[in-house]
Amino acid sequence: MCIDVAARRVEDLYEDFDKTAPYHRKDLDADLADYLGDCVREIGGVDFLIRFTLERPLSEDLVRRIRSSVKGFFLYRCELEQALSAKCSEPHWACLWPVFCSSRSLSGCREV
């Protein structure tokens, strides 16, 4: 399964709060993160790839940085959720593990 994401520029994939931070240290755009979460919940337990389509071709280095930042973003969110769930004494919506904590692939299709 492939989740398609189209954007004009790489910068459109990330939050604007810190324009000087390198991509691997930026949060994904909130709408993009929500979209990816919705897609993964919809497809269920199927392995998937995320394909980013941008207007301009990217260097191999930038493709690697985007892949790493997307994966790192969701791994970090999983760590936060795990820490929160360890502190919760009873079930609560905020204590649920996000769908990205599974072992599914977060590498992109070659179109990145």
Describe the structure concisely for a colleague.
This protein has 112 residues and is α+β, with helices and mostly antiparallel strands. It is built from 2 helices and 2 strands; from the N terminus they run βαβα.
Explain what you see.
The chain is an alpha+beta fold. It has one domain. It has two helices and two strands. A two-stranded parallel sheet has the order 1-2. The C terminus is likely disordered.
Strand content: 5-15%
- Kindly, what is the distance between the CA atoms of the first and last residues, rounded to a whole number of angstroms? 16 Å
Question: What is the mean pLDDT?
Answer: 76
Number of strands: 2
Q: What share of residues is helical?
A: 25-40%
Largest sheet: 2 strands, parallel
Domain count, please report it.
1
Query: Numbering strands along the chain, what is their spatial order in the largest sheet?
Result: 1-2
Radius of gyration: 15 Å
Report the principal-axis shape: globular
Helix/strand/pairing category: alpha+beta
Q: Stretches where pLDDT falls below 50 for ≥5 residues?
A: 92-112
Question: What's the total helix number?
Answer: 2
Run of helices and strands: EHEH
